[in-house]
Write the structure tokens for this entry.
Amino acid sequence: MNAPLLPALATRTADAPARLREIPYNYTSFSDREIVMRVLGAEAWDIVQELRGERRTGRSARMLYEVLGDIWVVQRNPFLQDDLLDNPKRRAALIEALQHRLREIERRRDADGAAAQPAADDPRPAALRADRVARLLALARDAVARFDADFTRTAELRARALKRLARVTRRDNIRFDGMSRVSHVTDATDWRVEYPFLVLAPDTEAEVAALVAGCIELGLTIIPRGGGTGYTGGAIPLTPMSAVINTEKLIGLGPVETLRLPGVDAEVATIFSEAGVVTKRVTDAADAAGLVFAVDPTSLEASCIGGNIAMNAGGKKAVLWGTALDNLAWWRMVDPQGDWLEITRLEHNRGKIHDVPLARFALAWYAPAQLGADGMMRGEPTRRETLEIEGARFRKQGLGKDVTDKFLAGLPGVQKEGCDGLITSARWVLHRMPKQIRTVCLEFFGQAKDAVPSIVEIKAYLDRQPFGAILAGLEHLDERYLRAVGYATKSRRGGLPKMVLIGDIVGDDEESVAKATSEVVRLANGRSGEGFIAVSPESRKTFWADRARTAAIARHTNAFKINEDVVIPLPRMAEYTDGIERINIELSTRNKLRVVDALDALFAADPATLPLGKADDAAGPDARLPVEMLAERLAQARELAGTVRARWEFLLEAIDAPLMQATSALESIGLPEAAVEARRRGARDPKARLFDLLQDRTVRVSWKRELLGPLSEIFSGQAFRPILDRAVAAHKTTLRSRVFVALHMHAGDGNVHTNLPVNSDDYGMLQEANRAVDRIMALARSLDGVISGEHGIGITKLEYLTDAEIREFRDDMRALKEWLV
């Protein structure tokens, strides 16, 4: 909440030094370069790079890396930290061992300096190398001294924190133990930057304000946290001097109550919830009363109410009733001064807030002790204000969602991701779902670019409320998602659709809803689609089951994925889909080119070193084929790999070439049929590109057809089977690192969830995925979209905000920081 203002956490550059793994005990995603810079500083890495090129025996370098490894493994393991804090003798022995290694490095430096003679091919004096080693040793000694002193400071600060915070909450709610810190170091991103100093788990809402005040006195950065389901790293500590305040024990949930809201003529159904209530509990409570809770994120079974407010969460129901902000009657938070702040919406329109010309909010501050155990404030506010915001300010024109404006005209709490306070409770407006509901499942078998415009057509049709029917949700799954969730088509065509839309059409008259639903199916038919309608609750639930399994996209990467959400204007959604397909084609082709590299290395090996099976001819069971024959087969395989490489490299480089220009090249690389189709299609549409043939798979970059099939003929027979097996294994290994992008979206409001499954232990794969994300964000902006619709900004998207977009918020946070200091 009062975190230091940092630059973008990580700058990814294509020409960054190669990742090394010489530091022992490094089981993290940090490279050796990153560890050296974190422990010793950027200057040290420059020195290490220079000395590496001059390394003689490498013994001194290994000892330095052992020192860094010992420091790093303790810094990244709270359990080891606790053990060393509890055992001063063991800690002293570790520090002595680190210092001993540094003394050995210095001894070797002195000995080498005395004996060294300048090499004939090295004009630089040995003294220069000795000076660099001396500077590196000085930096290492400073690091060891800091490492040693940190234990003393930690013990002292723990004692102070326990004494101060125990006045407010029970001692067992103040947690320094390794398990608590490990479980709060990351969120759904799996990023780990720093472990928190402590974790606080208040029993009641009334404790939170005093805990915030105590953390401020202790100089700790405050990280509000609920279920930890965020995809942008908003709950990840960036400094070791941080306190995570976990609100999961704040689980008060009131009954559904009909109240008269300020400035609203009619009574409104509402429900009160504390910040730690899991979203689905509120949904279930509303359902039990025959009402609807509009906030419906995919993570509703784990996310908490406080996070829904701080992120301005949405979900599939947002197309009808908007996001969290649209449905808040009031909310309570603790501000960075440790005071209570209640924000009440005035003249609530019970709909989307951007539809009103002017939104008004009443702000009231209270002292920490004014909140009673019953959740009611005692006495008058210490200060009052009224905040007025133009409705158009709440999201970019033409978009269904937008959480990129972090300042939001100064509105506290909502969309701030915990930066300006800690949400503790709220009262929500509930809605009545129309009596009649029909769910449609629309399967599209044509190209995605031709099917996507149906989203605009369906939305535009239902926005007119034909026959009184309205759209209550429209969700999209692309082909990769359908494959991941094991989707079973409802069509008699068989095969997998290119795209599926699932939507709810609602109204109070059964016949009207039926007519509107039939028209939606007719619209899909015009886009090579087929429609299926579910009326009963059981069949509707079956239709929605596939949408609920979207996490299955990351099944092959042990559930780890980069999950980005962007918002695209619906009329430009087809362009976004094309852009993602282009990225996927490039990623897939580059991965296959890496397979060719691996095969080329295999076939270039000395034939005598390659395994051979038993010959299957009449020469006997122990006979071996002559090496000369193997050499001939390897030469054929290398020639094949070279031909395929040239073809794939051309397709990758010429992907944007007009078809009329690509026809002769397609013939020359062995694709005569594609050349004929290119000539025909190019004559019909001069704007057609080679990309179009790759997108509809007229031209395919195929491992099975272009490599595996011919290689199976070259290495036919039992004798060559081991070599073919190695080729297949090389393909499988490389395929494991293939990055691809899959889409599902809240189609009704253009909120696209763009997912990249990644193996978190594969550094190269992570880097490639991050570069793809860079392109995805640029693509979204080029289509007049925004980089986040409901996931927030956090630390993963901060670099994609422009200075203009973040200026007001940054200035506000700087002013707040200066005020606190």
In short: The longest helix spans residues 126-165. The chain is about 45% helix and 15% strand. The two ends are 14 Å apart (CA to CA).
